[in-house]
Design goal:
Radius of gyration: 25 Å
Strand content: under 5%
Number of helices: 29
Distance between the termini: 45 Å
Largest sheet: 2 strands, antiparallel
Shape: globular
Number of strands: 2
């Protein structure tokens, strides 16, 4: 337990001005076992585009923009005091934090990063080009980002948007670079990527921080369960950083800087003001109590708490507490994404949140396997989860292919929830890619293809082209996802899928036609004829269609990606229309983002 607390405290000491690691692609596992099974818990994997692509994946698309850290820490509930060894370690960490604070304050202007180009992901490492937003003005760019809610129906559109927001982009004219970085970080937070938001905040040197950036930074660090990451920014906050949360952040930073009396005074002042609920103050007080000179026994009770806020979530995990499951159940789905990636949360809790996080585009297939693998040998794992992990292991290593398929099918059908079902396909993508195509397995080809494509294994999926029955779901998904299509599909081929489509209002068929049209894989005549048969319209204009077509015609792939995400907002795929999908896929194809276009189109048919 104490070692866990030490690791957690060390994580909290990360400072905002330190550059984040380069994003790159995870290598495929070398053994037949998923990474982590029967091995020590893996270290955080490197991020996505710098490493060679995995076998069977030709896409230049990363899984989620940051890798999931797997740090299995025990619960600290009910254990209030730190021993002498931990106190010594904390003292060393406090000294280190003080040195880093001094460094940030002494940063000379010549050493500061420019605000003309901002973002941790360079083009050389897989990011978008600096000019990818085109010549749009700052006000327009800010409006587009602010009006994108973060509820994006497509996992692949979310991945593309996260990649864009983290890219080293030229700051549009007419807007302060730090403020534009703040809006990008705020959108990353709305998407569910708390660590992505933190990385965006860290792209700005503390002396250049604006009030807007400081407020977004506070939200981002708290959601990432790292409120002490705000400490290096406090000297630059000034009088603009007001309010109870700021006062409690100052108290926590004071406590971990060895100023225990100041920390207690700030806590008590906030309590006397009476503007915050009791638990919000107690959580901050418990964190201060973990500091060397700020010990105070604090007991946190959730009995009267009826809502999970970002503050309660982040500070509870920082303090080594787990919010009650009932609060997670009634909270926004972003809490599941933050929970799945929080190193301080119990592994079983993170696995429970992984379904939603993967479907949202916050966890990759490899990330999910890492989580399951780290939990596999944990003696505290409950039986239902242990059974699920055993199925995953069988899906990878069983000698008999039928046993592997039965294990995968059990995972695919374990829940009627649409998010859980799709995330189960993401979880098994690597295992599905290892199944050798065979006519004897044609009955399983639909789910195998959906699974492979969900994680971008397009070339592995394409091996099933001669096996998958024409007119089946697997055939439809593969017709969109395959990297190469040497000839266009005929209306008769596509009509065969219509006859087998049991989706509501034939939405899968409508998305198939829209996707193929956007990819230019059917003729204009067949497009219009098939759309008429289905009673859908792919034409017509509005402000959004004009904007995304204009951006595509000018080759601004970053602007197209942002507008595509705007056009795909909603709680689920019922919010999407075939016309929107057609314009998204077409625009991405035109600007050279064919891989993203194919994956979004295939996902639409898979999930409709």
């Amino acid at each position: 337990m104490r070692r866990g607390m030490l690791l957690a405290c060390a994580s909290l000491m990360a400072v905002a001005f330190v550059s984040a690691p380069v994003i790159g692609q995870n290598d495929a596992p070398e053994s037949l076992l998923p990474p982590g099974f029967n091995d020590p818990a893996p270290a955080p994997s490197q991020s996505e585009p710098s490493a060679p692509p995995e076998p069977g994946r030709t896409l230049p698309i990363p899984p989620p923009v940051t890798s999931v850290p797997v740090v299995p820490l025990p619960s600290l509930a009910g254990q209030e005091e730190l021993d002498e060894a931990l106190s010594e370690e904390l003292a060393a960490l406090q000294e280190q934090m003080a040195e880093q604070l001094a460094l940030s304050q002494a940063l000379p202007p010549s050493a500061r990063r420019s605000l003309d180009r901002i973002g941790p992901l360079t083009e050389a490492n897989g990011g978008y080009a600096a000019s990818s937003l085109g010549n749009i003005g700052g006000r327009y760019a800010q409006t587009l980002v602010q009006r994108t809610s973060g509820r994006i129906v497509s996992r692949w559109a979310s991945l593309g948007l996260q990649k864009l927001l983290l890219s080293e982009l030229a700051t549009p004219q007419g807007i302060n670079g730090a403020n534009f970085a703040a809006e990008r970080a705020a959108l990353l937070l709305r998407i569910g990527s708390a660590d992505g938001a933190v990385r965006m905040v860290q792209a700005i040197d503390p002396p250049a921080a604006t009030p807007r950036l400081l407020n977004v930074a506070l939200s981002s660090y708290v959601a990432a369960a790292d409120p002490l990451g705000m400490c290096p920014l406090l000297p630059f906050a000034g009088e603009t950083a007001k309010g109870n949360e700021w006062q409690l952040i100052r108290a926590m930073c004071s406590g971990f800087s060895g100023e225990g009396s100041a920390a207690r005074e700030q806590i008590d002042r906030t309590r006397r003001q009476g503007d915050m609920t009791r638990i919000d103050v107690l959580l901050a007080e418990k964190i201060v109590g973990a500091s060397q000179n700020g010990r105070r026994a604090v007991s946190v009770q959730w009995d009267d708490v009826d809502q999970l806020t970002r503050w309660r979530f982040g500070l509870a995990l920082t303090a080594g507490l787990e919010p009650p499951e009932a609060l997670y159940a009634s909270a926004d789905r972003n809490f599941q994404a933050w929970r799945a990636r929080a190193p301080m949360a119990p592994l079983a809790s993170r696995v429970q949140a992984a379904d939603m996080a993967a479907a949202m585009g916050i966890l990759s297939s490899s990330d999910m396997i890492d989580l399951y693998g780290a939990t596999f040998d944990d003696p505290g794992t409950e039986e239902p989860l242990r059974d699920r992990m055993a199925l995953l292991r069988t899906a990878y290593v069983a000698a008999d292919v039928d046993d592997r398929l039965r294990a995968m099918q059990a995972l695919w059908t374990r829940s009627d929830n649409a998010f859980a079902r799709y995330s189960s396909h993401i979880l098994t993508a690597h295992a599905a890619a290892r199944v050798v195509p065979s006519a004897d397995l044609a009955a399983a080809s639909d789910d195998l293809i959906v699974s492979m494509v969900s994680a971008g294994f397009d070339t592995s999926a394409a091996r099933w082209a001669s096996v998958v029955p024409e007119g089946s779901l697997g055939w439809a998904v593969l017709s969109l996802a395959a990297p190469i299509q040497r000839s266009r599909f005929s209306s008769s081929q596509i009509s065969g899928f219509f006859d087998n489509d049991n989706s509501a209002d034939a939405r899968k068929s409508a998305f198939l036609v829209a996707g193929l049209a956007g990819l230019n894989r059917i003729s204009d005549g067949d497009r219009d004829s098939l759309a008429s048969d289905l009673g859908i319209r792919l034409g017509g204009e509005n402000r959004w269609t004009r904007a995304i077509r204009s951006a595509a015609s000018q080759g601004n792939d970053g602007l197209v990606t942002l507008l595509a995400a705007m056009g795909m907002q909603g709680n689920d795929w019922s919010a999407m229309t075939p016309r929107q999908l057609y314009h998204v896929v077409s625009a991405l194809r035109i600007v050279g983002r064919q891989a993203e276009a194919r994956m979004i189109a295939a996902e639409a048919v898979s999930r409709a």
